[in-house]
């Protein structure tokens, strides 16, 4: 059982221009319930930060948004998650195009053991997004440019992606995600393995990507949440405790647990 | 649930926040004494007391710099958020107001020496005594409200500031009458005017401190708001 009986999320979990809407989402791993009735809207072209102590369910919730939890046998998701009017948990939904539309960037950069070019070209190839080599070249260049990596790699596109620095590898993974023309990008602690300079570059990139994409980011760094997001959602033991504008959460949070967490009184 | 939300995980962070709060309260006590002594000096013509106020102004200035530096250290090292952030910002703003009150106390003391030297009887004695005692109470009230996170106490100080402002306007009218009646009194009247002005400004700074109490407790910035707006904020 959760520790706060029938908690209703404080603040403003819903918004007018929702790209993704989660309603009453519960997640069970076997017998154990990890997420309790989470309802949350993620607005178009906004960056929403999901924060909370370890084990609070923020990554589990993020992974619900493109059905990544389907890959775990014992994981059962109930409730509804609607992307542009369609329930992504509808049995008719094909998860492969869904995961192209709702792309994901992970904690540790995970480029394929291929060239920089092939890392980016992989998705468009399997999704049939390019009809010719010229098309593919264009997608690769555009994606690397959007990921802020083009200038650094344009002269070595055919070198292995794994030869790049950690920060460059993470931007390569972002380019790979962008290459299949997503609408939503999920980021699960994308900077936790990076140094401060590489982190700053990714944060700058997140701000630029917001113009075209909707972004949900899980982060353990409160400063990062404060820097990159417009709204912040605080999770605690599987419950969504509070959602508010990032400014409000970090200056005058509504819930005592949010206040205690962001001020470092527990975590 | 069994969690103590009063303490940070970092004990040093607790100690740092406690330190700026305590140092600010000590500085507040020092400034309150400075103002009380300056007011007593002008009311009694005690030039030794006025000299003492002028001498101690340096202590107030040093306290401001020290506490502000401690606030900077917390911002740099801890990146405080929510109530902790508000505490650091409020302390930093309050010490600036306290320092300015110290300056005003010193101005009163300097003018006291000039007024006491002149042979003419002092003008507006009653207004100076009333306003002076009132602003000393306001400083004490604002600092108490800060220590207790007491919004109602803070609003009371704002109300009293309006009374002091009225008393100041009335004293000015009285001074103008003296000057019109006897142009020889203009020199002394201007000194008294500066003293009244300094006391009135101290009241404004006490009000500023009270506004920071409201910010600290509720997160609402009520600077430049009217009394009615502040009362409404507190009710909401």
Helical stretch count of chain B?
7
End-to-end distance of chain B, in Å? Answer: 29 Å
Number of domains of chain B: 1
Strand order of the largest sheet of chain A: 1-11-10-4-9-8-7
Biggest chain contact: A-B, 18 and 21 residues
Content of β-strand of chain B: under 5%
The H/E string of chain A reads: EEEEHEEHEHHHHEHEHEEHH
- Decide which structural class fits the backbone of chain B: mainly alpha
Sheet with the most strands, sense and barrel status of chain B: none
CATH fold assignment of chain A: Rossmann fold
Instruction: Return residue spans of chain B where pLDDT drops below 50 for at least 5 consecutive residues.
Output: none
- CATH class categorisation of chain A: Alpha Beta
Outline of the structure:
The complex is a heterodimer of chains A (267) and B (236). By secondary structure, chain A is an alpha/beta fold.
